[in-house]
Design goal:
There is one protein chain. The chain has a single domain (5-257), classed as NAD(P)-binding Rossmann-like Domain (Rossmann fold). The chain is of the alpha/beta class. Helix 4 runs parallel beside helix 5 (116-143) and helix 7 (205-212) packs across helix 8 (214-221). The model is unreliable at 1-12 (pLDDT under 50). A seven-stranded parallel beta sheet has the order 3-2-1-4-5-6-7, sandwiched between helices. It contains nine helices and seven strands. Helix 5 (116-143) links the parallel strand 4 (98-101) and strand 5 (147-152).
Amino acid sequence: MTDTGHDRRQTALTGRFAGRRIVVTGGSRGLGEHVVRLLLSEGARVATCARKPEPLQVLQRSLESPAALLVRSLDVAVPELLEHFVEEAASEMGGVDGVVACAGGARGRGITEASAEDWAATWQMNVGHVARLVATSAPHLRAAGGGSIVVVASVSGWKPGPQAQYGSAKAAQIHMVSSLARELAAAGIRVNAVSPGSMLIPGKRWDRMQREDPSAFDRFRAEFPGGELVRPQEVADVIAFLLSDQARAVTGINLPVDKGQNAPTPGGY
């Protein structure tokens, strides 16, 4: 039976996240965009941020109900900007019930080439960003009676590969999750990590390799027992599960979503 506009609106009103207010960092493209669209489709109000305003505006204009999405352009590595965004989102949405730390990244090359500034910037984009996001969101989650925080880590956080500054930062995120889950449990706040494997995202590294160097891409595919890279919508589904009441007994874990990937880069271990 063909889905109608009425059916979609009704699903949004009665979905898993109907009435929920969720903050997502890094939601303009790739995995973050998939997360935002999935949460909105299931009834949530969402606030998201990214560095560049144009992709955020494109995302908002593409929605049937643009008012359900609050967008702001900012760098999550700047603590005061991130904190202001969370406070604004809580004020605009009337509270916060869930948080997804999806923004991240890396700077610099190998250990002999990466500067101290590269290491500091990579650390701040990942570990510092999560620390400030959780610290600012936790009082709002507590006021809402509890909630769920999901940190997007990486297979690189526990399966070694270059560059070390990125893997170290992701490993720190995974450890933070287990510590924060215990610290915030009394407030009814669950904290979990998802570690995606290498994702096939249009325009990104592996998609370019697939188009520009098919033989190298085929060699990389051998790192996956099933011969297929992870797709962002598959990771988004797991993030939504951890945000939902279906995962109400799950906290403090790092959940790999990597299709059994071996090494996180084409060079192997």
